[in-house]
Specification:
The complex is a heterodimer. Chain A contains seven helices and 21 strands. By secondary structure, chain A is α/β, with parallel strands linked by helices. Chain A has two domains: 265 residues, no CATH class; 56 residues, no CATH class. In chain A, a hairpin with a 2-residue loop joins strand 2 and strand 3. By secondary structure, chain B is an alpha/beta fold. In chain B, helix 5 runs parallel beside helix 6. The chains are: A alpha/beta, B alpha/beta.
């Protein structure tokens, strides 16, 4: 059995990854920073609810030989008509990707192939806090590949970044790194998805940086459907420019322990941000979502609806912080946290936080926590539905409000099925 | 319609029940045969709504004595969903809103559950759509309500019509209408009543629980029962309802 220190040490051993010139000092600094850190403890305010100890017994090793998958292996995750980039255990797979060249105004490639591009150099590491956050530091030093998405026009086809983990002989550490640049007045839908194909133990530590320039519009769907025994730590930093619109829909269904940190900074006036999330956990799962919306300039609007559903002995955590800076006058912010407990042993912590440094704002937040509505349950049973069917329907309905915000119909249907599978898996 | 040789559908004997530790029903007897329409009337607190909830199996209501057989089965040995599958239907006094579940999805799920129970084929969404568009005419409802979440944002009258739509789709043997007339304006009342009337056959039966005689102008009962203090204190024909309308309940309460 390893300790917290030993597990972290093992991650630090990692493996050296090739770099271009500008990246070497960044990687070196990230590694130095990581060496001075450890897994965050619950004395760290950002981690006080989330118990990472299930990670510690495992020795995670870098992936040295990559599994060969076929399109049949991923077919249930394919979004028809999407531009698709597939990564297997952190490494780009051109065979599984689908990059039709009909799409103008969009570049979607492996980040590794793009490291020589000055545009990448100019943005990489500028948003994700690799000097402060141990997981971002590990990713920055050890990432092998990820997606580079550069959108210059209106792209109607969704862009699907599919990160696949396979079962390895020893637990593996995977470090996907994605960058998304939305040029002025561009628009698209991005699906960033993490899945596990077999029931393996692995540590998936992903970092994504997103920049929206003036009047850009992005719907960013993040789907975490890792394997039940996996560990998933994700960080996403977003900078939104003047009059841009950023909508995030973030879903956490899988992993033994997962954490998603989303930082959105309003850099331009009049930008609008919509942050929606759903965590559905059962068994002994832990799912933590931490969001930060930073209104740094005037006339920003942010709305947020986050839902947690916890069954079995699972634990869901939501912390949503909204900061309104001194100069950010005319800010309009509303946040709602709604939670559903499906069992007596399940546990949900929710923590809305507002920090306001000027008077000319409208900020609302609220949180509710409840169980399946007994009257609704009786009504459905009185129409012939079994207890299980009725509970599933009501749980699904609670989740549906978030799923409905995803403007990719086939993905919405697939996620609906995942919800039912995860719920039934727990009760069987 | 009263027919002496029609089969007994529901037989309740000496039913006692409590809710929240308070005895509400204190010995109810009722026999309903196929083809009959019964009205149970009474003042607030007389136990008439409790009676309907007990029959449907609401978990907050506990049977403390007596028996009920429905289609030959021990009703109280069945879960609410089993009662529904056996052909019992409760139209709720306060229909429940279910955000996120569309009306058509619920109707199809419930319909197909009963089809399976009856050993019949389930209907796919397209086949079901044909069926439900026929049924919705019964309650003169706009088809746009099918795509909306169950009862969410519906007016009081729309909710009650939606209950009768469920009844029309599920075709129960015995429908219990719990104050279906409350909160309805005269047009909605007429529509709901026409809907129920159109669903009546010699093989099914209806028990209406109501405070007012008004509904009975539209759905004419074969029997009128007056409930008071948790028991049925008087049974008569439809003229009893008119007498209640004219004289109130006090004379019966005094007699009881």
């Amino acid at each position: 059995m390893g300790t917290r220190e030993q597990c972290f040490e093992q991650l630090l051993l990692g493996k050296a990854v090739e770099s271009v010139g500008w990246l070497k000092p960044i990687r070196a600094e990230a590694l130095d920073r990581a060496r001075a850190m450890n897994f965050p403890s619950n004395r760290n305010d950002d981690w006080r609810f989330t118990d990472l100890s299930a990670l510690y017994p495992h020795d995670f090793h870098p992936v040295v030989s990559f599994a060969k998958l076929t399109k049949a292996d991923i077919k249930e995750y394919v979004i028809p008509g999407a531009i698709r980039l597939v990564f297997v255990d952190g490494s780009y797979s051109s065979e599984l990707s689908d990059l039709p060249d009909i799409h103008e105004g969009v570049t979607v490639t492996s980040l590794l192939e793009r490291l020589g591009d000055p545009l990448v150099e100019g943005i990489f590491g500028k948003h994700a806090p690799y000097k402060q956050d141990a997981f971002v530091a590990l990713n920055t030093n050890f990432f092998e590949d990820g997606a580079w998405v550069h959108v210059a026009g209106d792209v109607t086809a969704p862009i699907h970044l599919l990160h696949v983990a396979t079962k390895r002989e020893t637990p593996s550490a995977i470090y996907p790194r994605n960058m998304v640049i939305m040029d002025s007045a561009s628009g698209t839908t991005l699906v960033e998805e993490y899945i596990g194909l077999e029931d393996g133990i692995y540590f998936s530590n992903a970092v994504t940086e997103v920049v929206l320039k003036e009047q850009a519009r992005l719907q960013h769907v993040r789907v975490q459907r890792e394997e039940r025994n996996a560990f998933h730590i994700g960080h996403c930093s977003v900078e939104v420019g003047k009059d841009s619109f950023y909508a995030s829909t973030s879903l956490a269904f899988g992993a033994r322990v997962s954490r998603h940190t989303l930082h959105v900074t309003q850099q331009g006036e009049g930008a609008e941000m919509q942050l929606d999330g759903l965590a559905l956990v059962a068994g002994r799962q832990i799912a933590d979502t931490h969001t930060l919306v930073n209104h740094a300039v005037p006339r920003g609007k942010s709305t947020q609806l986050h839902k947690c559903i916890a069954d079995g002995s699972a634990h869901a955590v939501f912390s949503g912080k909204v900061i309104v800076q001194e100069g950010a006058v005319g800010t309009d912010s509303a946040q709602s946290s709604r939670n559903l407990l499906l069992s007596d042993k399940a546990h949900i912590d929710t923590q809305p936080q507002l920090e306001i440094f000027n008077d000319d704002v409208s900020c609302k937040h609220g949180a509710t926590i409840g169980q399946i509505d007994a009257d609704a349950l009786f009504f459905l049973k009185s129409r012939g539905l079994t207890e299980e069917r009725a509970r599933n329907l009501l749980t699904h309905a609670f989740a549906a409000e978030i799923i409905a915000r995803i403007q990719v119909p086939s993905l919405g249907e697939s996620l609906g099925r995942t919800i039912l599978e995860r719920m039934n898996g727990e009760r069987k | 319609m009263i027919s002496k040789d029609s089969r007994i559908m529901l037989e309740v004997k000496n039913l006692h029940a409590e809710v929240g530790g308070i005895d509400i029903l204190k010995g109810v007897d009722l026999t309903v045969r196929a083809g009959e329409v019964h009205a149970i009337m009474g003042i607030n607190g007389s136990g008439k709504s409790t009676f309907s909830k007990v029959l449907a199996g609401h978990p907050d209501y506990h049977v403390t004595g007596g028996t009920a057989t429905f289609e030959g089965k021990d009703l109280f040995a069945l879960e609410p969903e089993e009662r529904a599958r056996a052909g019992l239907f409760l139209a709720f006094q306060y229909p429940v809103e279910i955000p996120g579940v569309s009306n058509s999805a619920l109707l199809r799920l419930a319909y197909n559950t009963l089809q399976t129970e009856r050993g019949l084929e389930e209907l796919d969404p397209l086949e079901f759509e044909d069926l439900v568009h026929e049924k919705i005419k019964v309650v003169e409802m706009d088809p746009s309500f099918l795509g909306r979440s169950v009862n969410e944002g519906f007016s009081g009258g729309e909710k009650k019509r939606n209950e009768i739509l469920q009844m029309a789709v599920l075709e129960p043997k015995l429908a219990i209408l719990d104050e279906t007339d409350s909160g309805l304006d005269i047009d909605a009342l007429r529509i709901v009543a026409n809907g129920v009337n159109s669903l009546l056959t010699p093989d099914n039966a209806v028990v209406m629980v109501t405070h007012y005689q008004r509904l009975l102008n539209y759905i004419v009962p074969d029997y009128v029962h007056v409930m008071d203090g948790g028991r049925i204190v008087r049974t008569g024909g439809k003229e009893l309802a008119l007498e209640l309308e004219a004289r109130g309940y006090d004379w019966l309460r005094a007699a009881a």
